[in-house]
User: Fold these one by one.
Assistant:
Number 1:
Amino acid sequence: MGVTEQLARFALRRAHVLIVEAPGDPMLRIRAEACVVREGWAIAMSPADADVLLVCGTADVEFGAAVDRLWDQMVSPLVRVASGAAADLPQAIDDARHALLDDDSQRADALRRAAGGSGTEPAGVAEVPMDKGHEGASSKHAAHGSMGHGATTHPSATGNPGLMGMDHESMDHGSIDMGHGHHMHMGMSGPAGIPLAQGEDDRDGLEMDALHVILGPILPAWPADLVLRCTLHGDTISAAEAEVLPSAEQSAALSPDERGALLIDGAARVVQLAGWDPVAIALRGVRDDLLTPRLDQRRVSARLQRIERRIRRSRTLRWSLRGVRPSSAAAQAAGPDAHELLLALLEYAVGAVGGRPGHGPASLPAVTAPELASAVVGQDLATARLTVASFTPWGLAGRVPIAPAMEATDG
Amino acid sequence: MGDLPATPALISVLVVPAGVVLLALLAAAMNGALDARAAGRPAASGVAVPLVETARLLRQQRRTLAGADSVLWRIGGAGLVVAALLKVLVVPVGAVSFADIPAGIVWFNAMDVLLWALWWMLGWGANSAYSLIGGYRFLAQALAYEIPLMFALTGPAIGAGSLDVTQVAAAQHDLWFIVWMPVAFLVYAASVVAFAVWGPFAAPAGTDAVSGVLVELSGPDRLVVLAGRYALLVAGAAFAVPMFLGGGAGPLLPAWAWVLVKTAVLLGVFVGARRLFPAIRPDRLAEVAWVVVVPLVLVQLLVIAVLAAVGRS
């Protein structure tokens, strides 16, 4: 017991937290990320990577269902906490810590979840073909004996090949297939009853597997109110449909520091998606310090300007972001690309924290959800993610203007 | 260690894994420290990160998705460390050579090709779209780096007139190969970072694909993959020492210590490279690799071949 508890305490020095942002309040998510990092904890990328599920803001029924499916994919030890306001965050983190330290109840919970996966016959029609998966999982569980290593296959988790927030049933038997209309795979079962991907002709005329992937609403560095239902050939998007989730009311007008933090957050997302994690970490560090009142803001501003220069100078980044913009004719004609938008976000962020005033595009180009959906068709996943992140960093509703002049008219 | 008794089998079984694990921990600790400093916190706070993460992952459950090809998936994950260890076997450490294979360079290359299968199985086996995309991306990336890497490894072989790693190291007693074949060294170094799916070549595990090949991994399965990435960096750094950095040559210290020091320094460079560049997208990388890098390496080989022929005659 002593050793187990010590291991738990040691591991808890760096719990991984999957932060879910309910549409409408990006500031709360930013403060949650700051809280997690200040604790020395890490931000998880996927349910498999997470110990804590932290839900920020108020979720409606549809979004809540997506969160539930995400929760079903997590493995023990695990805990779910929620926070409706920034003031609740420390308490939520504290609750999570206590729950993760409680080895006995984690063990009991793990056994209960495993039993739920292998013993209980699922009621829903869509779940019936999952039986094989359950058998495989339970035999593994028996082979490994004690908790810790039992393969977890919760009913909902089994159906989901890792698409965050959305499960396989809705993906393959739901409205999306009907919408696209070229799938006849109900009778063709692959392993564990999951239908095999069907072939489609790719642009070059060769047949590729068509995968249906739902991007959002819960995805790292993705606007919380946007859902894109995509058909992928390899990693190229061949068809997409957009949906905008309803957002909660935006909170009061932003303070200059908050606006700066939001701009830095948008830039950090683009940089992270471009695969430059250390610089994204540095940007988020500045963002979080900006929201910490007692720190010397001049030094924070100087740090931000150093990072901005570094990003501006990177030729590799320019090479990978140049020309990334929606593929519609209007956007192609004159619109800024992802690289210009990233630099604009950073310039106005520098302006907002008391550096030189910003220039460049004064607001992000207005895009609607259908425009975004048609924009990403023909792009590969990497380009599509960069397009979405640079054109709508925080979602389509309640758009945040990046130039201070625009803020007065909005707030 | 220089005067170890002649029980090479025992040595390789104990010393090689222990050494690789220690160096991998060193690399991970350095990465943790650099990340902490980047976030504006004291660098020391990040040093223990690899140990804490290990404890965390050992405590976490494994998971399997329905329809996952668990056998291939787990072979792919656990195989990375094994491939790294097999690569290190042909590196002479001082007087000790764990596996003195006459064609050690070919052996290293064979292990490298094994990685194609391993990373792909890891991406494919999970039965997850993002993981699969990660697997595709690795293949695209491998297509770009593998040919330049093979040519780059040919350089030292021509220079020394041997495929035996010990002889390649011995051939550098006058001048290290890094000095007269810098292009081959740079291509080799970039390829090491690429086969370890690290830093600018981490697109197969990129955020845009929700961490790609890593997305569904939890617990010990995730641990062996993360350890495998660092172990591959260690293997790449260690093999560069006899190939380009003069093997155990150096003043004062014994040969085995110089091998370790050079490995650690190069490992530090690899870990630091993550900070210098954003991800290079596999689709754009292929073009550069085939249009620019392959001709450059071939010119380098021509220069080496001419110099070697002149030198020997």
Note: The beta strands of chain A are 16-21, 42-43, 52-56, 79-83, 198-201, 207-215, 226-233, 236-244.
Number 2:
Amino acid sequence: MFRHLLISAAIGLTAVAGMAQDLRVPASVTAGEEATISTSGSGKATFYLLGPGVSSKSDVSLGDEIRIQGQELRNAGDYLALVCSDSCHSGTFYVAAAKPAKLTFLVHPSRVPVGLSDAVSGVAFPFDQFNNLVLTPKTISFQLLAGDKPLFSRPIATQNGVAWFRTASGKSAGLLQVNASLDDLSAKRAVQQVASDPCNLRITGQRIPIGVIVQTEPVHDCAGNVVPDGTIVTFSATEANGKSTVDAPVKQGVARAQIEASGATVVSVASGVVMGNELRIGAKP
Amino acid sequence: MKFTLPIIIVVVTAVLIGLALLGPEQTRNVVGIEAGSAVYTRKSSTPEQALRNLLADVQRRNWDRAIAEVSKGSITDKQAFIQDWTGSNGSLRSFSALEGFESRPLHITNDDAQMRVRLHWTTPVGPIEDVRDFRLVREGDVWKTVLPKTEIPNVPARVIPVTFLRWDLVTGGASDEWGSRNVDAPHVRIISMNAVDSAEGAVVMGEVVNEDTVPAFVNVNATLVDGAGSAIDDETSFDKIDHVLLPKQVSPYRIDFPNFNLKSVKNVRMDVKASLVPASADPVIGVMNQKIESDPQGKSVLHGDLFNQSGQTVNISHVIVSFYDNNAKVVWVADGYEENALLPQASAPFAVEIPKSIAPKVQNFHVVVDQYSLNKS
């Protein structure tokens, strides 16, 4: 805001003062590099430089080249150069970002069930060494690896400094490594692929002196991944005079529960919103 | 004549001092007795008076006198009697106080009486009402309360192997230029929602599932919206939910809007919030012998037994039940706290009341048990 005010004021001053000297600004400047501005005329003058995060004033001699240090041109954006003696003259130039020196890479989510379409997304931003977003198109290579197996590999050009992808999760639970590379720069992120909902939930059971003991077969999702330990499996045992339920966690791939039931019992199983088979166990002899 | 008033004052003062010295706590005994319904007298000449004296002594934790009010044949162990009223093992009862009671006779003969008492407890989870039936018998010229023999739960010494399963949470730093690199919040979903009017106001209820592979701390919020699209009230599920949901676990939730009527509500906006939380898969509590029955007061009550299948004491159990109609729609969510601790490999009964208007619709139910253990964070 302040910078805009200064620029407006400077341009206004230029218009009032007329054009006594000639000022030639560079056509293109790269951030952090030195630049020169040539002037014409003679005598002493005052040089002003206004830009993103920069505001400086120095005495110059008209007719000489004005050297601007790279230190003053670290931030990409529009700059205004202004030379004043008895009158003022100005010129604007644009400082572009330097070559990419850093790749910021965001991947979402950190944890994803297997077999979901459009579930994994990533976005990469190239920045130069001065943290300017590189707006010139660059090609970033995205690669997804499940173990050593490549799942996805695609070069994508940045648009306005951004390149992104969206893809499906893999079929196997485990670590999904997501890489983004640009020339010699690279960034790695990890996504944990987890088992999806249990599939073909099946139980077995038997009568014991104090009731029935039931347990699941190893609980897998539909892609064959073992569901994580701690997943809750609900056993429901219904007999003539009541119902018993146990929310049991999966431990080492199976969930088991002990249920008090003496009569003929029907045991059903569910995990989340997924139902399993029913098991009929006869009455206690 | 001029000495009459001072003499009266001196005599009354002496009588009052004597009364105070003989029974210094008697005047406090009226605390907790239904307002204006009773005056404490030591003599238990009626069943009502006997029971009132017993409960007043229990309320004041005057155990010796309370036990003296109990029929000799019915109690064997003072410790068990005390434990019955004060709780043990960090149970909810051990953090509670008997605030008051109301009694009414069920039947009275010359030598035997049956009384029903409504006990009002103050607890850390709010007021709890307990209904108990007491039998009283006449012993000589006084009435005594017959208490069933109370046994202190005793767990035999044994080793219970536990494959301990828990999730810990390590939060990331903010060293990345884009802020923290923490893992995503768990994915939870509301799988059913129903809004009804009840005697106390509008109620929004249903069930929520943790669809993720990590534990979630869950809270469900509801906002009532009127015809103009303005929010008229918002509430949370508070304790009518099992907040910590393990992967694939389903919990009922209920959100009460006291003094609101659904007639003024056009829409209900639901919002479920979930965050990562350290959790343990133990203890596992089975809910056995669940059945709906009528209690002596004619109310429909879901009864059952909680069976602690683990090797650690559960100090406070919280039972939350969703009741379904014949279309598997949640028509009510009720809850109740178990006042006694659940010892390892031991069972304890529970009961949850179903409102009279809902009871005829109930075809099925789902019970979940939330638990609090003092030795766990």
Note: DSSP finds four helices and 19 strands in chain B.
Number 3:
Amino acid sequence: MSEGLHELFSASAARHSGAVAVRDPGRGTEVSYQELDRLSERVRQTLERAGVRPGDRVGLCLPKSIASVAGILGTLKAGATYVPVDPDGPAARAAYVFRDCAVTALLADASRIGALAAQLEAGGPSPALLPLTVDDAEHGLGGLDGGGDERPGAVGVELDATAYILYTSGSTGRPKGVVLSHRNALSFLAWCSAAFEPRSGDVFSSHAPFHFDLSILDLFLSLKHGAAVVLVGEEVAKNPKGMVELALAERVSIWYSTPSVLTLMVLHGAPEAWRELSLRLVLFAGEVFPVKHLRRLRALTPRARLFNLYGPTETNVCTFHEIPEEVPAERVEPYPIGAVCAHLEGLVVDEAGRGVATGEEGELVIRGPGVMKGYWNLPERSAQAFLGSGSDRWYRTGDVVRADADGILTYVGRRDRMVKRRGYRIELGEIEATLYNHPEITEVAVVAVSDEDGVTIRAHYCTPDGERLSLIALRTFCARHLPVYMVPDEFQLETDLPRTSTDKLDHRALVERA
Amino acid sequence: MTREQIEADIRSYILEEFLPGEDAANLQRDTPLISSGVLDSLATLKLVSFLEESFRVELAAHEVGEHNLDSIARMGEFITARSG
């Protein structure tokens, strides 16, 4: 008996076969549930013919499109694990990810697959390469050879089988793969269903890229409930006014994105357009929402319910807080991250792992069926991520919080050197490791500074002759090795870097230097 | 406005807004800005707003991209064609 994530989709496909499942306004295309079922069957059969077996990994490097949705569903139907990467990111990083988890097959944009294949060749056996051109006929899937038999035949999976691996920034300078099971996703979606009561008439936005955990809600919650999901393509995602227009034209009822994106939409979208939106739910997660912008959003969406969601990729959403109907003019402090979701348990602990008293600061730890299996191929890192073991295993979020008497949690800050910006997790150490490879940089330290407008990343560097480096050249160098969201906003030339008494770099002192 | 004036305005905006402290000589007409990572998506958004407000043009979603915005020269060409 199959109980996998894709079964949610298959059940909806049976009930709502003629309803629209996915719309891609950027390409002017859409598919019904029945059609998407057929396309994902073709992907499954193509993958199986290419040698993919249950439990294998399948890499996805595709622009957001109906083809990429079919790729995800087809991979799951084959009993395999999908591993999505940023299609616009550096090829070297994508190749690292695919090599690290040893993908058996790779579904990639035809224009990018050559560069990826060249990078992959160096690292041992090459995966089966399945190039797609998403703008072509049949949503770009016309060229796949599934063998012609497109009757449903999804593979049954165990609940603890891995559904997807999402790579996040790693402090050692290498991304690490967060391994998530069907059980993890299903328990999260069951909570979402109870909390948000989606209906088949809902229209979800899909703003987050598929390598980002926000996409799990967009994609699978909509498909679970027979609703439509509207893809916000990479191009429109760069145009906040266009996103408000898209939400209006597509009658989006459930919007989910980072606060950064909503802030830009509030600042640049036409107020008349905002007032006509059909939004009934606005969800945001991934970083702190500065109150001055949240206040404007609240005023522009008087009929919608607004929720602040919180959680690392390792747990997906683990706490939530509803924003009241009015954000008082005098409020400056951000809203709480809220109460722990019903399918999980949370504790606030001290350095020794003991619970702290109400109102005291401590690290938030989480247990339950939504918590990841571990990091791919990193047993030590996986063990360090948890407090305790076996069934008494709590995931350490690394986030410092404070609970009030009702268990409502307020976010205080990070324990380590990871920051979140625009919803992305960034290990400052990974940026430092990259900049150390720059031929003209002798020493470098990267710090993050938060103010009411968000997080700024600043690199302090030294050069052999004390010459300032070109900002254009530095950013170009960084973007060749890092995703764009990790490129520092500011670069500051230093004659020397401050040290602590134990001769470690004094990041705190650097934060004060501006 | 001539194309030279348009490009000069765009250039000083980019230097001031996104490249404080940069040697102006490093920002050429053909310096790649988006494909190179010099401007991230947020900077691109600000740039689009600047272009729309300064030159009284509207950019449709499909026009916001490297093909029109990757260098000062491309922006100059696009704006000139649009306002001409």
Note: Chain B has a mean pLDDT of 91.
Number 4:
Amino acid sequence: MIYRENGQFKTSYRADQAIFPIAQDRLFIGLLLVVAFVVVPGLASDYLLRALLIPFVIMSLAALGVNILVGYCGQISLGSGAFMAVGAYGAYNFFQRLPGMPLVPALILGGLCATCFGVLFGLPSLRVKGLYLAVATLAAQFFADWMFLRIKWFTLDTPSGSVSVSNLQVFGLPIDSAVSKYLFCLAMLVVIALLAKNLVRSAIGREWMAIRDMDVAAAVLGIRPMYAKLTAFAVSSFIIGVAGGLWAFVYLGAWEPAAFSVDQSFRLLFMVIIGGLGSIMGSFFGAAFIVVLPIALNQFLPAILGMFGISISTAGISHAELMIFGVLIVWFLIVEPHGLAKLWSTGKQKLRLWPFPH
Amino acid sequence: MKIRTLALAVTALSALASTGAFAQAKEQFIPVLSYRTGPYAPNGTPWANGFVDYLKLVNARGGLNGVKLSFEECETGYDTARTVECYERLKSRGASFVQPLSTGGTFAITEKAPADKIPLVTVGYGRSESADGSVFKWNFPIAGTYWVASDTILQAIAKKEGGWDKLKGKKIALVYHDSPFGKEPIALMRERSALHGFELTLLPVTAPGVDQKSTWLQIRQSRPDYVVLWGWGIMNTTAIKEAQATGYPREKMYGVWWAGAEPDVKDVAEGAKGYNAVTMQHGAEPNSKVVKDILDMVHAKGQGTGPKDEVGQVLYMRGAMSAMLGTEGIRAAQERYGKGKVMTGEQVRWGLENLNLTQPKLDALGFAGVMRPISTSCVDHMGSAWARIHTWDGKQWKFTSDWMQADEQIIKPLVKSTAAKYATEKKLTARNGADCQS
């Protein structure tokens, strides 16, 4: 009743091809943006912003990047942590070595470093597919770990190999309070997500999907596999690289290569699988699931158990958190193998017919 | 939608938690960042037990001039991102000081602490250059840093050889955990190696260090005269087992204090006999008064954390001493800002900077024989550079050296130059005399 496109006539191609052709969708997204930019910073506590929302926003961005490669182009990658690391260390080097380097260009240059790195490690994708490619991209992960641990030049010869940044600012506005950090990350996310959404709707996005669905057929149709695969690697690692830069600069502040370990790669892959492959929305759901849920469990478990008069040790909470989290992953994959995004679209479909389902 | 409901729920919960904090406003809150799970749990658990037990003991003794301590544990799993989350979670409850118990976490919180005005206490670990209080206003590596540890290890080796000049041409291998923690001693050991002409071989071990076959193959080939083990958690046990397998004499192995506790050697027991480790002040102290007090006043009432027979072990003592230094910082702050009041982070910072633990004070706290007197100042946030070596005899750790003091001539310039580099990088100006009074 409320969500129905009846009576919304499109009179031009332009209107027909809009990102959100349905007025209710536009309204919803508009409201969501207002909530994210205005209501949340006003209401959320410092802890909520710093410990939950900032990592969520950054990880959504990274998951978006992974989704372009894995979900849209079908190239399974386990090198996402490495691309994040290259983005972070690239941005760090530009930021520290060039005096007066502003933050945003440094992050973008870091993203471009990740692009080069991603294209280089995407080359095997021209020959190997599927799980074999995953193993090949794993090499990127180990290479990056090695590079940032052993080559002192990248860490400016700091004795411990841990690097840090401070005095971040954008157009003269300092990025140090929780709200400013959140808004900065959110702005980056919105801009990049908009670009990504448009990219996957364009010719290049269709090429990626054609390659994903059947690469031989795509090649017969005249799509160049090399071009399509490498552009997917380039775009995806750029986005992941920028996310890596934000993770290091804004969230951690000081970091070491362990912050971008193979665990991070797996987490990102799980985010897109659980969130929904080939869906921009899915990246957000996946990031929320993987980033927010464990912390929420950790916080709620003692309170919930406390209601029944059970007290639980810190280690117990941690173990329980892992167990419940694992069970939820399995459960979600069984009931909805296409990810949380599929639930979302099913919901929308249902809403269309509501309240008269027949 | 999901996110929003979750966000709302979390806000509701945190609101609930803050009302809880209001109800107990007369209590000094201390966040406890610990790890009882993950690859480092065998070492993290006794530390956390000691820390929490000491806080309970302070309450059992009547609090700090009547102010009771409250605390909450947060599990970090030795993960930097999770450590930051825990720090953010607990700081809003009026954190007096924070001890992250991880070098990665220390680096991350170093950037956040000045803005949040929470002193960062890293007893014996963290970044070595933060001993320079004129640059690192909020960092307190009280009672030693990794540079102190590595310097005293080298002193012990030199003593064994019969003097620094005898080290010329010797080979010393540093087997280290490949992380900021493991890399900390390299700067100092390089300095010493250039000074005395011994050859330093660096052998990194990828974290967590379960596989060290290639490292020990290298040791078998190059046969270094001494091996310095800079490990943590499972890496230590593995290294000692590998040494046993390769036939490397354990007497010639020296571990950092993170590699010198019961969990590291007890699985190897006899095989680890003769293995040495540096201790920052204390070792296993089952006979000290503070341990007896904890057993009588905390464990006897059934409030003890962890198993009773582990009370007084090396890492347990480490936790207790870390807690003691923090709470004594609060006590020192109370002496200036008002006894029996709850101190803010800023006030505690002053207390930690003007800590003066004399021998009578230590005796009263039950730390007689456990550690030496410590006094910190505006420029010196470390307070003491004394250490001892203890050796595993197959059953327990026993002291095998006298007190040794790390050489200020070596460490001071290194601290100054590294801290100055940090200051220029961060565009900080060194604190002046007036700032020291605040």
Note: Chain A touches chain B through 50 residues (CB under 8 Å).
